[in-house]
Amino acid sequence: MSFRKYTRTRLASVLSYPADLATVSALAVLSYFVITSVSDGGAATLFFAIPLALFLPGYALVSVLFPTAKRSSRETPAVATNRRGIDATERIGLAFALSLAIVPLVVLTLPVTEWGLETEPLAASLAVFTVGFAQLGAIRRLRRPEPERFTVSPIASVIAVRRTDDAVLTASSILLTVAVATAIGALIVGFLIPASAGGFTELGLYTADEDGELVAGDLPDEIEPGEQVPVTVSIENQEGERTAYMVVVQQQVLEDGDVVDRTELQEVDANVSDGATVTSQRQIGPTAEPGETVRISVLLYEGDPPVIPTNENADEDTYFWVTVTDDPQIDEG
After folding, report:
1. What range(s) does the DUF1616 domain occupy (predicted)?
2. 233 has which bridge partners?
């Protein structure tokens, strides 16, 4: 084989590579890089995450299962074969359906691997699956005779549906088209309309262990008179915008479940950007008498607090109980 003929053959192979599968592979790779590179997780991430999760993997798998185009009744050969193709409308519908089956399998598999169920491994798995099966689909399609290969032509597919002599196939194709259009419309509406639930703010109390790591639920329940409780206050802002917070630390005396006395111990103000978490290390000193048990409430407000801060009017609140032990010097006396 001469060099010119070899080059011409390679060029023909490149030119005959299915354009739809090349596009699907490129979109999968691009989606992976966008999802893992954009840190704010905004509209760009969502725009690429939707097709990577709901369409591209299924389309790649469909290309492997059905490499040939759908034949009309006039093109059906006299000798029956098992090579049944599908048209573009059916491919799109199956792509959505298979993607909805593929993604849960990937989600169930990742937690038992060393990578875990994180954004980057999930995006990488879906991208590798899509690209890999797209290449297998391209190989299967190129091995078919050129007249049998599926090519992207949605308009021709619609015309073929209108010309078919089988009423059942016509009805099923129309229903599939409507279902696909509805699914796409729902995705677009969900993408354009913001979620009604809105954002949230998370308030937490932590203490440092022996290694200096912050742990929850390890606050002391007893202290000596004059002793202070070391507490780290954590505020996570997921409101969608920078937010100013005020935290009121309040000592409360309760009788029969009702607060009968309140004493403000300190205030903490914080201006937190969207998606960020700030922590503030505080020393909280209860003013309760020896032998008295009080509730230390941490009340968070967006903006300025009311005149009388309470657990009921706080945007977020948490608390812990502490007992001031009897003074040992008094007992000795």
Report:
1. 25-323
2. 205, 280
